């Protein structure tokens, strides 16, 4: 069985690389004749198609890295032909010849940096400073599920047959295809899910909390479990993507954490204690550290010093 399996993989690899001889083509096609009577159910066929297609993309991605070719030059006709052939072999063959399991990939940003991540389904995620996202190397189940720590803006490819789920700080945001922002830092007392386009469903451990419409935000308090749905321009919550630091009735403690993540610094604040109850509202376009701290000092009547950090 192992020799048969190894030979099958060799033939598939050669087929993907366009190196299959006439005799080897006949050998591979014999698999089709052997398994053509084993019929997949429509649902199982979709699952198999997704799994194999994404693994073919992973395979070709490895090939192009080795050869130095760009992804835009991928031969999708070749992918489709390989996909059709392998799907035709049926569920038995899929179980007999195991494909690689999806690996978990984690991408993180340090304080003071942002990154754009392209997921296996071509959805994109922009990570804010001090954040991370974990996802499989390919989506091989009925759902596309990722885990977020921190803050990110999502642009999700539409696929009603494979819903997209984001797990963050105990909440799960479920979407089909939309754009939205999640703010769920470990150091924050609140989680905020802000919808820009489409629709999302936000679930807690006891069930659904809300189904949001564009320019609605769910604000969830970690300690109490109390939540509310607010109407507010989502652009206010995604201004960080345009390099705008925006404070909107934040406490001094919250503002301190935001500034520390933004500039990769540690702040020391000297105050009389009463200022901790004060809220701060301000907008800084393409902010500079010294100018931002000077403005905060004027707004709060405090003395602020800082030192550089190495949060990477």
TrEMBL record:
Residues 106-201 form the FecR protein domain. Residues 245-310 form the Protein FecR C-terminal domain. The keyword Repeat does not apply. Keywords: Membrane, Transmembrane, Transmembrane helix. This is Anti-sigma factor. Coiled coil: none annotated. InterPro entries: FecR (IPR006860), FecR_C (IPR032508), Ferrdict_sens_TM (IPR012373). The chain crosses the membrane at residues 75-94. Pfam families: FecR, FecR_C. One of its GO terms (molecular function) is sigma factor antagonist activity. It comes from the Bacteria.
């Amino acid at each position: 069985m192992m020799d048969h399996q190894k030979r099958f993989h060799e033939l598939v690899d050669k087929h993907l690389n366009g190196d299959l001889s006439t005799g080897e083509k006949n050998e591979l096609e014999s698999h089709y004749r052997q398994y053509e009577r084993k019929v997949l159910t429509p649902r199982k066929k979709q699952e198999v198609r997704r799994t194999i297609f994404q693994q073919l993309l992973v395979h070709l991605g490895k090939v192009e890295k080795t050869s130095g070719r760009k992804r835009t030059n991928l031969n999708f006709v070749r992918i489709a032909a390989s996909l059709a052939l392998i799907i035709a072999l049926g569920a038995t063959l899929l179980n007999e010849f195991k494909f690689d399991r999806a690996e978990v990939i984690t991408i993180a940003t340090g304080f003071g940096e942002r990154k754009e991540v392209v997921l296996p389904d071509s959805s994109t995620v922009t990570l804010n400073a001090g954040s991370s996202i974990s996802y499989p190397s390919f989506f091989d189940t009925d759902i596309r599920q990722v885990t977020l720590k921190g803050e990110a803006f999502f642009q999700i490819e539409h696929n009603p047959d494979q819903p997209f789920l984001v797990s963050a700080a105990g909440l799960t945001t479920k979407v089909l295809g939309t754009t939205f922002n999640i703010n769920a830092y470990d150091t924050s007392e609140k989680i905020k899910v802000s919808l820009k386009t489409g629709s999302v469903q936000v679930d807690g451990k006891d069930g659904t909390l809300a189904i949001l419409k564009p320019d609605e935000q769910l604000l969830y308090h970690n300690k109490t479990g109390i939540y509310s749905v607010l109407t507010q321009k989502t652009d206010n919550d995604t201004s960080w993507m345009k390099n705008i630091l925006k404070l909107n009735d934040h406490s001094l403690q919250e503002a301190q954490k935001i500034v520390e993540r933004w500039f990769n610094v540690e702040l020391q604040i000297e105050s009389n204690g009463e200022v901790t109850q004060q809220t701060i509202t301000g907008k800084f376009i393409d902010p500079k550290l010294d100018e931002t701290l000077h403005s905060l000092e004027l707004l709060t009547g405090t003395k602020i010093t800082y030192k550089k950090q190495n949060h990477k």
